[in-house]
Amino acid sequence: MNIVFDTYAWIEYFEGSAAGEAVERYIESEHYAITTPSIVLAELSDAHVQGKVQMPWEDILIFIRSHSECLDLGEEIATKAGPLKKKLRMKSQGVGLIDAIILATTAYLGGTLLTGDPHLTGEEGVIDLSTLRKQD
């Protein structure tokens, strides 16, 4: 099964939070192929610069590369992101283009998205980390 990690999932993991413990179970399982959209690396880089992720940046990149496949934004995903953002905005005005790109990537892969982002939870093919935390 292909699991797509968004920025929320990776930050929780690197912070070692309760949600991060749920993320760790996916990383350690042999049943999942983990994908990280390249746009997530951009968001993580921004979070790192802002001090939200304390690990050295190179360590973060090495870990992500060794535990997931990084997928670049291709034409098919890019062209689906705009209409998907419009659809998502009908439910939540705070949805951004990055949210739509990550969800479009998940659909492109036929995978499942692991997130706690309230803009994406409740969407088809999304595992809500806040729900997993409550089950622990």
Quick structural summary:
The chain is α/β, with parallel strands linked by helices and 136 residues long. It has helices at 7-15, 18-28, 38-49, 57-67, 75-89, 97-109, 129-135; strands spanning 2-5, 33-37, 69-71, 112-115, 126-128.
Notes on the structure:
This protein has 136 residues and is an alpha/beta fold. The chain has a domain at 2-73 and 111-131: Rossmann fold. Helices cover 57% and strands 14% of the residues. The protein has seven helices and five strands, in the order E-H-H-E-H-H-E-H-H-E-E-H. The chain has helices at residues 7-15, 18-28, 38-49, 57-67, 75-89, 97-109, 129-135, and strands at 2-5, 33-37, 69-71, 112-115, 126-128. The protein has a five-stranded parallel β-sheet, sandwiched between helices. Helix 1 crosses helix 2 (18-28) and helix 5 packs across helix 6. The longest helix is centred in the middle third of the chain and has 15 residues, at 75-89. It starts with a strand and ends with a helix.
